[in-house]
Amino acid sequence: MIPFSDLWPILLGWAIAVGSPGPAILAIVGAAMGGGRANGFAVSTGVWCGSVFWALLAGFGLGAAMMAHAWVLDALRYIGAGYLLVLAIKSARAAMAKGEAKVRAVNEPLRVSFLKGLTIHVMNPKAILFWGALFAVVIPEGAEPIALLQVGASCLAVSFTVMSTMAFAFSTRFIARGYLRLHRVFEGAFAALFGFAALKVLTAKVV
């Protein structure tokens, strides 16, 4: 077991990294503001499940196997970039649409929101690099498997807390009213940011 005195600075840094603007956070914020709390939580849960997927791969040492087959990571990268471009186009269309915005601007089933979050995170193979680096840096050499489980479970708990909090915060009535007043600005910003994220994913070298 790793002492909590050694673990909490890592968890704090992990929380900051998870909450930093990126494709997953943008999707959570957009769903929560435009579709309400339920859609925000659905997207955040999907993103979290994607994080569990990458954490398990890294924990079982499968990351090295994927790195040895770079074409798999490249395929995921291209698919992920394409999906982010689709989200950018949808946001751009919403920004240019005429008519008054409604509170439920994102009107999609919860399963669709969940799959959106899951797809965004699973199609970003750079996530396994973060998990692999985390385990390599934090887990002492020769440590018991329980240490790996402790770090992985702790970071996943922090991830779930941060993403759920953001889904809750951005679905409040105050934020919703602001979204109604400035929905075209928000959607235009999301279009630009999703497009930029797609470009970064497309051009980044995973290996």
Rounded Rg: 18 Å
State the helix count.
10
The total count of strands amounts to: 0
H-E string: HHHHHHHHHH
Mean pLDDT: 78
Helix content: over 70%
Q: What is the terminal-to-terminal distance?
A: 31 Å
The domain count comes to 1
Structural class: mainly alpha
Q: Could you give a short account of the major beta sheet?
A: none
Give the uncertain stretches in residue-range form. Answer: none
Shape, per Cα inertia axes: globular
Query: What amount of the residues lies in strands?
Result: under 5%
In words, what does this structure look like?
This protein has 207 residues and is an all-alpha fold. The protein has one domain. Helix content is 81%, strand content 0%. The chain contains ten helices and no strands. The chain has helices at residues 4-19, 23-35, 37-59, 62-68, 70-96, 110-122, 126-138, 145-169, 173-181, 183-203. α2 (23-35) runs parallel beside α8 (145-169) and α3 (37-59) runs antiparallel to α8. The chain is globular, with a radius of gyration of 18 Å.
